[in-house]
Amino acid sequence: MYNKLIFTILFNILFFSVLTASIKDIYLLPQPRQILFNNQKFPIGKIQLSTPVLAEELDSLFRECGGRIVPKASLNVVVRITDSLPDINLNPEEGYTLSVTRNRIYIQATTSTGVYRAMQTLRQLKKYGQPYFTGCTITDWPAFRIRGFMHDVGRSYISVEELKREIAMLARYKINVFHWHLTENQAWRLESRLFPALNDSSNMTRMPGKYYTLAEARELIGFCKKHHVLLIPEIDIPGHSEAFKRTFRHDMQSREGKIILKLLFDEICENLDVPYLHIGTDEVSFTDPDFVPEMISHIRTKGKKVISWNPGWTYQPGEIDMTQLWSYRGKAQKGIPAIDSRFHYLNHYDIFGDLVALYNSRIYNCNEGSDDIAGVILAIWNDRLVVPERNIILENNFYPAMLAIAERSWLGGGHEYFDGKGTILPADNTPAFIDFTDFEKRMLWHKEHNFREYPFAYVRQTDIRWNITDPFPNEGDLSRSFPPEQALQTHYQYKAQTYNVHPAIGAGIYLRHVWGTLVPGFFCNPQENHTAYAWTWVYSPKNQETGLWIEFQNYGRSEKDLPPLPGKWDYRESRIWLNNEEIQPPEWTATHRTPSNETALGNENCVARPPLIVKLHKGWNNVFLKLPIGRFSTPEIRLQKWMFTVVFVTPDGRKAADLIYSEKNPYSGSKIRPTGTNNVSRIR
Known about the structure:
By secondary structure, this protein is α/β, with parallel strands linked by helices. The chain contains 13 helices and 28 strands. It starts with a helix and ends with a strand.
């Protein structure tokens, strides 16, 4: 018995050593459902392909990795389309098995789409800089059948080239839907040959003259199909339709408006080879009770299925093919598949806090999809003008958010929903913290190796530690000073504190979320007219200059908020000190004083400007924040985000600086060493 126990222990040590060696430097995203490494390597060289399924795509993949397909070779790739995969019962059309050994790659799937998903995993099994695929056996399938993103190009035109770039990259991470919101009050962005006046510059109030020709639309649909992505075009009716009214001088719900709409839908359905058409129906007063049923019936006669926003028109099962939930009031209905887009509007997100919530949250609070829960779409609504095009991707934190939802929607699960305390990183060693830390590590590897030329602002935040005080009532005097601020004059000695201090983790902390109590922040019951304080200690191994991202109000891309006044960080009297020296805000590029969605955002958001360059001395440095709040809504800022973002980055803003953060006061007598353990952690 003793010898058997010793053998088991030694076997496990050897097995896990081999396993660890096998998976080192392999950063799969999304993670497969089931994977077993075998410590074998498939060398990338001359490879024989034993099936014509996706032969062109496989050839492209192997050439990208340094190999090539030839008629006869000792290395073999076998692709088999089978009737079923016994271990996969959910969304089998995208499921696959993948086996990689020293001389063969074997893919099984029920459809070519499943083969394509397997190829994306295979691509990630190539060790960076090494000429081989890591050996393993994988069984994999998605938890949700819809995993997508939406661009509101009705408000802000995005070039076809940029859309293709996003679709191609995200397809590598198993994103499978692109929702194309083509019409808005500002413009009708899809060409109509029947009614060319719709696309005339005179009928557009933003980016005049910018629209997609039918040829470009067909080209993009074909591009999506090549990457096994479903394109869903949206023509929003009868609301969000001022561009239609300017052109025809008729409301969509009028008799004349309905005649024109049907002709437009005929043109769209005849030219766009897509299975679904999205018809909007949100945020509008219905004056004709027959309007929506009549339009749905007409579109269905053209062979298309129909999707509608919820809340919007009210349906019974069978009256609509799918609904998309856009507000917390939206509820899935039995018998009508639902897409969850509640709290999934990137235009309201900050860079750090909301990403935590997105990754940790279950989709529609379900562990996996069902007949009634189809999946999730992240949306970008640029009510506010954002230019250049690159900033739409950068400031909306598009790629980090999409990688987070790519994994969450593929794996399913999560720890809560957005109405939990999702925007705040949980304590060390909790399952939610461990899961997010692991995801963050893998995501940043992909940023470094696959997204170098893409707008991708996120840097590591899971090792940043803060102390945050309970808020002090300021009675509307936002400049009022309280004991933590007064202690700045005594070398940060907080021994005589008469207030509570709580730990927090992360680069971006919501004290109160933009959505208020719907999405809780750090404080359970935040009140107006209060002031909180936060501080951290930062260890630098040398005297150095480094970059610093700072913001106290992340400017949403859907608000006409005014930029701060010169010399101020915000309208709340927020302040920041580094080693007892106050850091002044940058010069704001936007200076307008009349709110307007048509005045572009300037450098209000920290990622839209170069990092501030600051000096750190060798040893411990103190960062101290004053965080007042007055009213939660003001004439200058409609939705106050009581929050802060502070993180040291490289001077170019590409990575987190190589520093150590601690919430412990090194001058208090407690022992703090830059060891990367306990409360002190190293930033990588």
